[in-house]
Amino acid sequence: MRVVVTGGNSGVGKATAASLAADGHSVLIACRDVEKARQAAATMSGDVEVAALDLGDLSSVRAFADSVPTVDVLVNNAGVMAVPLTRTADGFESHIGINHLGHFALTCLLADRITDRVISVASATYLFNRLHLDDLNWERRRYNRWSAYGESKLANLLFVAALRERGMRAYATDPGATDTDITRSLNMAEHPRIRRLMHTPAQGARASLQAVTTDLPSGTYLAPRFNQLGRPKVTRLLRKAVDPVAARRLWELSAELTGCDWPG
């Protein structure tokens, strides 16, 4: 299969891309840092290509989408976590802009060329947040970087629910607590004992890899057995993550903000 992995140059995305390529799939790593992606691809066996994609810039998203003739599986993996208040090239708050709106636009632009399924990498942090559709870009609220991240992950889950309703096979996955560049930059794995407990990137990639080939119903959420640790299992989502009204409202707002929508 032809698989596009966003953010496949490091961490869980890199492990996902490497495993898929080793299994014989044709993999396209799409990310902002092309040189880092080339270095990552050089360590992988199999058919691996690299292309530029900045999810924080809709012009880059459109240019990348225009360059892709077909894709069987789209893995929406890239993202930012707990960054200070910054805005994308299009003026969106970075978490919602990159983690959700960039991937929303990419998926819509590729919709008529995705032959199989879409996988969105989410997070258990959605549990502790609610989506503020009246202030998606944090223009009227006091900014909290963890809440911003959690809201973007809730948006990922609602996006999967909306894709399912539109007839696209879609899955949500959660890598769990994983030792990656992002978690290390946030000092989340400072203590050696904590770091030993965390998933390796390869372990964190298990849910997404399972989602690539599973026959489970569209909309299924695969997350670690023990919330943050353990092998992935089918996990029930809270109603707020599958609420059809919220999913529809988020879709309409996302389409308005990005200028992208589902074909037809």
UniProtKB/TrEMBL annotation:
Gene3D superfamilies: NAD(P)-binding Rossmann-like Domain. One of its GO terms (molecular function) is oxidoreductase activity. InterPro entries: NAD(P)-bd_dom_sf, SDR_fam. It comes from the Bacteria. It holds the Pfam family adh_short. Transmembrane segments: none annotated. Keywords: Oxidoreductase. This is Retinol dehydrogenase. It comes from Mycolicibacterium rutilum (Mycobacterium rutilum).
